[in-house]
Amino acid sequence: MLSQDLGDNCLNRVRAHYADLAAGAAETGRVKLILLGNGGVGKTQIARWLAEKPFDEAWDSTHGIAVGGVTLADDAATQMQIWDFGGQEIYHGAHALFLGGPAVIAIVWDPATEAEPMQTCNGLTFRNQPLAYWAAVARHLGHRDSPLLVIQSKCDRLEQEVRTPPLPAGLLDHRPYTKNLQVSAKAKRGRASLLETLADAATWLRAPERLGAVRVGAGRLRVQQRLEAMIAADQYRSPDERQHRLLTMDAFTDLCSEAGGVSSPAALLTYLDAEGTVLHRPGLFDDRIILDQNWALEAVYAVFERDRGAFTEIRRANGRFTRDLLARLVWQNHSAAEQDLFLDLMRSCGIAFEHRRFTIDDDGAETIEYIAPELLPATTDTGGLWTAGDPTETVTFDYPLLHGGLIRSVMAELGGRAGANARYWRDGLCGFEADSQSRLWIDQTTGTDPATPWQGHLRLRTQGGNARELMDQLVRVVERAQQRVGLTPSTVTRSSPPDPRTEPRALTLVQEKPNQPEWYVSYAWGDDSEDGKAREAIVDRLCDAAAERGRVIVRDKNELSLGDNLIRFMERIGQGDRVFVILSNKYLASPNCMFELTELWRTSKQDPALFRSRVRICALPKTEIWTDDHRNHWIDHWEEQENKLFERIQKSKIAAMADANHRNLKLFHRFSTQVADILSNLTDHIQPRTFEELEQYGLDDC
Ligand SMILES: Nc1nc2c(ncn2[C@@H]2O[C@H](COP(=O)(O)OP(=O)(O)OP(=O)(O)O)[C@@H](O)[C@H]2O)c(=O)[nH]1
Ligand SMILES: [Mg+2]
Known about the structure:
The chain is an alpha/beta fold.
């Protein structure tokens, strides 16, 4: 109910709470029980056991958070809201948001998992954290009054019990309430002491000097119970027949009027979201309320299941994905509206961020490309955006506990504005900011000290231009991210103090414009054939001749595929001031080359004069571009490619699902419709045929 962050004014919600209390108060008796620990240690089995459900041999890994209520057998007054957190690292950023309130926190561990650095479940690899990490999470992210239980699970026999959990001495000394327990959900050992401890911890937490008995408006409780009944009723229906997955705002407001005693449905919604009854983020999910949270979280995390195909595709595309891809590979059974909702959910949990929008279709439809930071490559890749040499400004934030949520949150804020103008890898990003004309590089480091692998630091660097001003802005970005994920640095070290005159402003990451105009060469790479060698030789000669004149021609010799690299190169070419196109028959038959050529045409707005002013063409001998017949040949060629691919897609389900096939289909269509126009526009004007002519027309004219 209280403020979620600095910009959040809680006054209206507090007023609503008291107004609802005045209309009739009730005690809830609810206490949150948060289960934390590595994947597979047995948290869900403990939750099931408390709810008197049978033990399940299978490990059905929890996605995100599962919330359920149980009334403790010996203590009817206490209703425990169990928050069963999935143990995988990817969830940690989101979990920090839920840990801050008063709750009983149970850290579950077992010696076998403790001994394994990694483990695999349903094709997913989990990175295990030591018990001390989880204790540090509870200590740094949990409420100061929250009782802490350290539970050793899977103690099927007495001999398996470890009397002293492997925790550094003194780590939990300052906690007012900690207890060690040993249980086995399978052999049903330790249940009585677990129940007794839970009841005791709940009573302790609800003592007047701490949480106190929680009183809420009776109307609020009625709405909450009504919603819980709707959710519970659905649990007995088969997944296809569930009726209460989502609730519109109107339906919720009606529910509040029926229940009576609710002065502000919006304030109640914030309360119910914090209680875990519903999931709601104002402005997101089309303003609908998610009742069936497991359904939504399952859909989101299906993206990360290796055997569903999306995982591999996204990995291959360096963390990039589109809604189309997920719709084909994991969300076939969900409507477009539901898919949008899942994407919103991914964004609001920091699992993905919008990276850029682009148009590949000729009809101008926009495609949104997202990045899933967790699936970015692990290696640092500043990709030439950072100039070697000392950074001008550095700021280092040291954290007693650092998890991946922080860098993901920073990336989401900056990356949402940067589009393709930044480089990302799993632990950082790099780019160039327009207003300050300064470069930035942000990355995180954890695990340098094996004794405390959960400690880490985030380092910000800025270079060139107004590096200090940009640094002041970036520090604010990090402070906002800290707030969102619930982290606090122990120390902050700055190379120079902040400038008090720096006004907050939005950051714009752009391509850094070099001092010189950017020149590129687009050609079909050489192969071992005579023609191939000749093509390569002419490009070498061109680059050398340019170098003699003090010019650099950018020549991307890296393997380009119709994917991320190519799109990045295309965007650079799109901004290129001059592009040399070395035409050959191989060029006109190559999808990559044709992509570059049609991009040049598109970024010249299909204006022949603008196109010719930027492009310098040199056609190699035997290139078929000079007659109508030649040009028609290329139309036929690309039409044929399009038809062939279309047939394949129609024949094979697998081919139909591949994102690349759909993209290529659109591109082949684009090539066939534009190739003749582009070529006749060029051949209508005299083109150089010898290298000397090319030198004159391309290098000596400016
Ligand atoms: N022998 C034994 N196995 C157990 C016990 N409790 C859980 N397991 C097994 O451990 C595996 C994982 O249990 P879960 O409760 O799903 O683990 P979790 O901690 O919820 O895992 P995530 O949801 O992935 O974070 C399952 O195969 C269980 O059958 C126990 O008391 N004894
Ligand atoms: Mg679980």
